[in-house]
Amino acid sequence: MHNQSIIGKIVDTSGTYDDEGNQLTAPTYIAGWHVNTTSEVAGWADYLCDPQPSTPMRVYAGDVTTVCYSFPDEDTFNEMEPV
Questions:
Q1: pLDDT tens for residues 11-65?
Q2: How far is 24 from 7, CA to CA, in rounded Å?
Q3: How far apart are CA 4 and CA 63, in angstroms?
Protein backbone atom coordinates (compact mmCIF):
# COMPACT_ATOMS: atom_id res chain seq x y z
CA MET A 1 0.00 0.00 0.00
CA HIS A 2 1.16 3.50 -0.84
CA ASN A 3 0.36 6.64 1.07
CA GLN A 4 -0.58 9.41 -1.30
CA SER A 5 -0.79 13.16 -1.02
CA ILE A 6 -2.94 14.75 -3.72
CA ILE A 7 -1.53 18.18 -4.47
CA GLY A 8 -3.54 19.00 -7.58
CA LYS A 9 -2.54 22.18 -9.38
CA ILE A 10 0.72 23.88 -8.40
CA VAL A 11 0.83 27.68 -8.64
CA ASP A 12 3.64 28.90 -10.90
CA THR A 13 2.94 32.63 -10.56
CA SER A 14 0.65 34.00 -7.87
CA GLY A 15 -2.26 36.19 -8.86
CA THR A 16 -2.46 39.79 -7.73
CA TYR A 17 -5.36 41.36 -5.85
CA ASP A 18 -6.40 44.86 -4.83
CA ASP A 19 -7.05 45.97 -1.24
CA GLU A 20 -10.64 44.72 -1.46
CA GLY A 21 -9.61 41.25 -2.64
CA ASN A 22 -10.61 41.71 -6.28
CA GLN A 23 -8.39 39.80 -8.65
CA LEU A 24 -6.20 42.01 -10.84
CA THR A 25 -4.23 39.24 -12.54
CA ALA A 26 -4.99 35.53 -12.48
CA PRO A 27 -2.50 33.02 -11.09
CA THR A 28 -0.77 30.68 -13.53
CA TYR A 29 -0.12 27.00 -12.88
CA ILE A 30 2.52 24.41 -13.69
CA ALA A 31 1.06 21.97 -16.21
CA GLY A 32 -0.52 18.84 -14.76
CA TRP A 33 -2.31 17.38 -11.73
CA HIS A 34 0.26 16.50 -9.08
CA VAL A 35 0.34 13.62 -6.60
CA ASN A 36 3.07 12.46 -4.20
CA THR A 37 3.43 8.94 -2.82
CA THR A 38 5.75 7.17 -0.40
CA SER A 39 7.05 4.77 -3.08
CA GLU A 40 6.70 4.15 -6.81
CA VAL A 41 3.27 2.91 -7.88
CA ALA A 42 2.97 0.08 -10.41
CA GLY A 43 1.13 1.32 -13.50
CA TRP A 44 1.98 4.98 -12.91
CA ALA A 45 5.44 4.95 -14.54
CA ASP A 46 4.29 7.13 -17.46
CA TYR A 47 3.44 9.90 -14.99
CA LEU A 48 6.56 9.76 -12.81
CA CYS A 49 8.28 13.15 -12.70
CA ASP A 50 11.71 12.80 -14.30
CA PRO A 51 13.76 14.22 -12.84
CA GLN A 52 12.14 14.15 -9.42
CA PRO A 53 11.86 17.68 -7.97
CA SER A 54 14.66 18.60 -5.60
CA THR A 55 12.13 20.50 -3.45
CA PRO A 56 8.74 18.72 -3.64
CA MET A 57 5.61 20.71 -2.73
CA ARG A 58 4.97 18.23 0.11
CA VAL A 59 7.16 15.68 1.81
CA TYR A 60 6.52 12.93 4.35
CA ALA A 61 7.71 13.15 7.95
CA GLY A 62 10.66 11.09 9.06
CA ASP A 63 13.03 9.35 6.72
CA VAL A 64 10.39 8.57 4.07
CA THR A 65 11.06 8.96 0.35
CA THR A 66 8.69 11.24 -1.57
CA VAL A 67 7.91 10.09 -5.12
CA CYS A 68 6.33 12.76 -7.33
CA TYR A 69 3.88 12.18 -10.20
CA SER A 70 2.35 14.59 -12.71
CA PHE A 71 -0.80 13.54 -14.57
CA PRO A 72 -2.12 15.55 -17.53
CA ASP A 73 -5.24 16.47 -15.57
CA GLU A 74 -7.42 15.43 -12.62
CA ASP A 75 -9.62 13.15 -14.76
CA THR A 76 -6.59 11.11 -15.90
CA PHE A 77 -5.51 10.68 -12.29
CA ASN A 78 -9.03 9.62 -11.25
CA GLU A 79 -9.07 6.96 -13.97
CA MET A 80 -5.95 5.28 -12.55
CA GLU A 81 -6.07 2.25 -10.25
CA PRO A 82 -6.27 3.39 -6.64
CA VAL A 83 -3.14 2.89 -4.55
A1: 999 999 999 999 999 999 999 999 999 999 999 999 999 999 888 888 888 878 8
A2: 25
A3: 16
Please report the DSSP string for 12-74 in residue order. Answer: EE--EE-TT--EEE--EEEEEEEEEESS--TT-GGGB-SSPPSS-SS--SSS---EEEEESSH
Q: How far apart are CA 70 and CA 30, in angstroms?
A: 10
Question: For position 1, what pLDDT does the model report?
Answer: 58
Give the integer Cα–Cα distance in Å for 69 and 71: 7
Dihedral sign (CA 49, 52, 53, 57): positive
Amino acid at 50: D
CA angle 1, 7, 61 (to 5 degrees): 60
Q: How far apart are CA 36 and CA 61, in angstroms?
A: 13
